[in-house]
Amino acid sequence: MGGTFEPENIVVTGGCGFIGSNFVHHVVREHPGVHVTVLDKLTYAGNPGNIAGLPSDRVELVVGDICDEGLVDRLVAGADAVVHYAAESHNDNSIADPSPFLETNVRGTYTLIEACRKHGVRYHHVSTDEVYGDLALDDPARFTEETPYRPSSPYSSTKAASDMLVRTWVRTFGLRATISNCSNNYGPYQHVEKFIPRQITNLIDGVRPKLYGDGRNVRDWIHTEDHSSAVWCILTKGRIGETYLIGADGERDNLAVLREILRAFGRPEDDFDWVRDRPGHDRRYAIDSAKLRRELGWEPARTDFAAGLAETIEWYRENEPWWRPAKEATEVRYRAQGQ
Ligand code: NAD
Ligand code: DAU
User: Fold this and answer.
1) 180: nearest Cα among 124, 240, 131, 130
2) Cα(316)–Cα(293) distance, rounded to whole angstroms?
3) pLDDT band, very low/low/confident/very high, at 242 (cuts 50, 70, 90)
4) Who lines ligand 1 at CB under 6 A?
């Protein structure tokens, strides 16, 4: 296990997005001595409301682009650590238009690690299990830190490229960095373009949910709160230069998840539409997080998926003003793609 690192001033990029904002809430709640500067461009996926109400002496929002070298240099110079969540994050969007994915996910990461290298600042890189490609449904294997990279979508290939940049900066420039690759998150503040919020908000609107392909694709679900505790654990206790996989043994196929959501709304289990499959759709993701658990002693706390899903459904029911402004535009985009 590495020594403990106790940052007091951290920059969290993408802290107005889904997972980044949940991490900011986590840090404010669990680590009282820490000040957070959120750097977020407020794209369609960023919402300052996600962190509104947090104490202003603990959290500062800087609206800006991670590709802006001058701004990044200034913020990194005053920080003990950077935790990098900002990204273009949605596979379907990356298939429709890869360009912003290259800019933010690759150039943005490069800009951040260059600044961290220059100022000797600790860097944690938040990445995805999708860099490993997919597994067959009947394959007993799960992804480990040794699995070769084999990304499928423009999104996952730009995330893979960003991971490679970080590894290179560690080896060649001595950047003090760690990388985590996490499985599918769910919970509050997730954009309505993503699978679970899309189906929940469709049902609230009386619209039939939409399932891609044959519905048998498997995702390994983790509550976003467990992702946050894992990232904090790696930031403070992880060994420099190491990659840690984050997962909570939550494999489920999309049909099973959808049926659970339909049940919660009292709808028949076949009350949904089959729609066009995603091109290159990854079949199955599965994470073996043994290294993180063994080396750093991390354990997930929110492993009751049914309870977490019920809570998430309740959150979307109670927070319609939060998601309503994005809903129509999202569905217009999906309809144009036959999804
Ligand atoms: P999200 O799309 O909800 O949020 C992304 C945030 O980044 C938004 O607030 C957006 O405004 C901001 N952003 C985008 N481009 C920016 C730029 N150029 N400069 C500054 N800010 C910018 O994404 P998410 O689902 O919360 O994912 C966050 C991170 O976690 C990503 O790096 C993603 O690859 C990774 N990840 C996501 C999952 C998942 O299940 N969603 C799983 C594993 C890893
Ligand atoms: O595995 C981690 C990744 O999880 C993250 O890196 C990504 O940022 C995040 O978006 C997520 O990627 P997925 O592509 O797995 O998530 P998404 O919510 O888009 O889709 C989940 C599954 O549901 C996938 O198999 C596609 C399917 N799907 C999705 C939508 C939006 C449907 O069947 N219907 C839908 O309407």
Assistant:
1) 124
2) 32
3) very high
4) 13-14, 16-20, 39-43, 45-46, 65-67, 85-89, 104, 108, 126, 128, 159, 182, 184-185, 191
CB 259 within 8 Å of CB 196: no
Q: Whose CA is nearest to atom 19 of ligand 1?
A: 65
Provide the token pair at 188: 């509050």
Q: Mind listing the pLDDT tens digit for each residue in 220-234?
A: 999 999 999 999 999
Distance CA 326, CA 46 (A): 11
Q: CB under 8 Å, gap of 24 or more: what pairs does 199-207 form?
A: 199/258, 199/261, 199/272, 200/261, 200/312, 200/313, 200/316, 201/316, 201/323, 201/327, 203/261, 203/262, 203/265, 203/267, 204/316, 204/317, 204/320, 205/327, 207/331
Residue 252 Cα to ligand 2 midpoint, Å, equals 12
Q: How close is the Cα of 268 to the center of ligand 1, in Å?
A: 34
Distance from C-alpha of 42 to C-alpha of 48, rounded to nearest angstrom: 7
Distance, CA 224 to ligand 2 centroid (Å)?
15
Which residues form the pocket of ligand 2, taking CB atoms under 6 Å from any ligand atom?
89-91, 128-130, 183-184, 194-195, 198, 210-212, 217, 219, 254, 278, 285
The whole-number pLDDT of residue 1 equals 44
The set of residues, in sequence order, having a beta carbon less than 8 Å from that of 327 and lying 6+ positions away, is: 192, 201, 205
> Alpha-carbon torsion 117, 104, 134, 271, what sign?
positive
Give the catalytic positions in this structure. 129-130, 155
Span 264-322, pLDDT tens digits? 999 999 999 999 999 999 999 999 999 999 999 999 999 999 999 999 999 999 999 99
Q: Give me the residue label for tokens 């933010």.
A: 104
Q: What is the mean pLDDT of residues 19-48?
A: 98
pLDDT of residue 124: 99
Question: What is the C-alpha R_g of the chain?
Answer: 19
Q: What ligand is nearest to the CA atom of residue 65?
A: 1
Whether the pLDDT of residue 2 is over 60: the answer is no
DSSP at 48: G
